[in-house]
Amino acid sequence: MTETYADLIAAEDVLLFVNAAVTSTGQREFRSQAYQQRLSLDFLHEYVRVNYRTVYAASLALDINDHNAARVVEQLLRTAGEASGEQRRTEGRLIAARLARLPPQRVYRLFRALRAAKVGNRRTRAILRDWLAARPDLGHDAVKYRAGLKTAARHFHLPLTTTTGTGTATGTAPPAAGELGDFLFKPGVRPRYEHPLLDAYRRAHYEQGAVYELPFTVAEGFAARHGVAREAFVERIAPRMTRLERLRTQREAGADGAGAAVRTDLSVMPLTRLALYALSLTTDERVRRRAELTGALRSAARRAAGPYAGTWGRVAAVLDDSYSASGSGVKRRRPLAVALGGHFLLEALAAPGTYGAWWTSGRTDPLLVRPYGPTPLGMRVIDALEYAPERLVVVSDGWDNAPPGLAGEVLRVWRTRLDRERRTSVVHLNPVYEADGFDVRRLAASVPTAGIRDAEDLPALVEIAQFAEGRTGLAELQAYLDRRIESFLRTYERGGAT
Fold first, then answer.
1. What is the C-alpha separation between 429 and 447, in angstroms, rounded?
2. Could you give the C-alpha distances from 125 to 48, 161, 405, 447, in angstroms and in order?
3. pLDDT tens per residue, range 219-269
4. Is residue 353 pLDDT above 50, yes or no?
5. Cα dihedral: 264, 319, 443, 355 (round 10)
6. How far is CA 348 from CA 45, 309, 344, 352, in A?
7. Are the C-beta atoms of 388 and 398 separated by less than 8 Å?
8. Which pLDDT value is given to residue 177?
9. Mean pLDDT lowest for which of 260-264, 345-349, 442-446?
10. pLDDT tier for residue 496 given thresholds of 50, 70 and 90
């Protein structure tokens, strides 16, 4: 009995960490400061790494956010001496697969963190060397991530040769031998470079036309130096913008986002990013662009649902648009965006014509939601249960305050008195990490709760939430993690990670 209890405690510890690694980025939240978030994360990373190192490494195969994924990689590389040979082999594969999925700026930031920690062992150098070798175009990286690449080459003694980088991202050949080294460490030595981006960077110092051959974020600085008007610069650089750069600059072209030069196809945007963009618009803009925004959100939701579209049966959702959904200054409207994205995703997952949604404010138009008022979760849960759904999904920070605690009591009575056969599956997804409690806030002990950061992860998080009911131990959780690791590594090794 003691072993069973210990397994349950271990499973709870691991789920605490997973919830934190999914939701928290160490930034200020509505009810906690950044330093509190960081201290809480520091403790959980240290605790789980020391006590459950295998599971700690396995979290790289889960839907944890990029901030914590980079943190896990850093901790594993810094403490390689604590791992057995078998653990190091598995960790190496997981680290390589996760680095391939991380944005390059995060990996270069990781290089700097490892340098500051004075980590430079052979294993770390091999992992980073392989990541650099897989980069599509190191000439592009040398221009866009100059400081990070310099750090990697200097501290980890990584070769910058013609065999590094394939040169396929920008349709160019890899830099000639010695060019990257001269560009990074001996600027001004060469009168010209063979690689077009390296040479464009050199010419952009004195030639305005070369600015428009550079990546957008690099070109911005040169345009300001040359005194180019912002509107003219954006219009001319538009062909070189990424999708997200187009989205960020689209509103600069006019109140309605008009201007073909900076228009982006919203239908291909990720769901949560698109929800954040929609919420950043004024009410009038949302009304005017209703068809475009709604169509784009539904298209993104169908992509996120994938093969699960229409398979969840009758679904009811309780979605939090109270004032606390406004988030914080650094995560503005993030909780509300997760709820909005979740609304359209649950609509796609439900059987056609069976989805019902209840916002805490009582609004019925999802496109016009805004963070306002208290959080009467209990009343909305009652409304949703009356709909007799097969699945009830609550997306909220869990601060039920109108009246306080009603949602938890309703769900307790529902589970213990009215639905003992568990005809309705209830899951609570919380987009806000509670630093003081080392977990996301829960509605009731009988309701499985999981942290969520991106609405796209909702199907996978509903699956992992089953382990949060306190009835499964570490063995079942480890089996689930093993399946995720196998799938994660298979996808990477077949070339799917890029």
1. 10
2. 25, 16, 52, 45
3. 999 999 999 999 899 989 988 888 888 887 875 555 444 444 566 778 788
4. yes
5. -110
6. 35, 5, 6, 8
7. no
8. 61
9. 260-264
10. low
The overall average pLDDT reported for the chain is: 89
**Could you report the per-residue pLDDT of 9-63, keeping only the tens digit for each?**
888 888 899 999 999 999 999 999 999 999 999 999 999 999 999 999 999 999 9
Q: Does the model's pTM come out above 0.85?
A: yes
